[in-house]
Amino acid sequence: MKSYSEFLAAGVPLQLQIGGKVLYVQRSEAGQVLKVEFLNGVASQSVDNVGKGFKAAPVGGFGSIKITATESGTVDFVVTDGDIDVKFDDAATVIGNDDSQAVPVRLPAGQRMLVDVAGGNVQLTATNVGINNSNDLAIPVQMQALGTIINGMKAINAGAAQQVSADAALKRLRFRNASADKSICLGGANVTFANAAIVLAPGDMWIEDDAAGATWFAAADAAGADLRIMGVKA
Hints:
Layout: E1 2-8, E2 14-16, E3 22-28, E4 34-40, E5 43-50, E6 55-56, E7 64-69, E8 73-80, E9 148-156, E10 162-165, E11 172-177, E12 184-187, E13 198-200, E14 205-208, E15 216-220, E16 225-233
Antiparallel strand pairs: 1-8, 2-7, 3-6, 3-8, 4-5, 4-7, 9-16, 10-15, 11-14, 11-16, 12-13, 12-15
């Protein structure tokens, strides 16, 4: 067994008068760019587009070899009369598929994948994502910064509910009963004091951050109630 290291200029054949039974390419600096010809008298066998990891044992062995590279680079190889056991401890495989040939990945049930992100943005798309952190690992959430404030006031009468807000772009909403002696109830189109969950006594305020963009209605226990409204949106 003997090891060789040779620089191959692109397109210039390297012929070596070395014989053996097995050839193994340990390194090809330019990649899978080698044509290897095994010569044995007047007969020859050849293979194209090989590189690191290529191993061949032509029938009957070979008396000499000729290697040609399509790109310049150093080639390290071994020639032996015996066999070679190849280990792939340092081998790496790169999957270069584009989006049209994406490779799906599925973990076995119950297993998790650890993802370490060093800066940048991560976008996850899924139908059901659960975050199971304990209280000690709670995730802080920052509310969206908003820049437009909408102010208004409504005179609310007794009886049928009146529409008081209907802006789907609102993210936060505040209702204040500015009346001196009248109560106001808030809710949907059919809200009354009998079914309302939100009732504002004089001076009370209701802060709505969950359904600010919904259509809100109000009714009063007496005519002329004063409802002040403030909405905030982007």
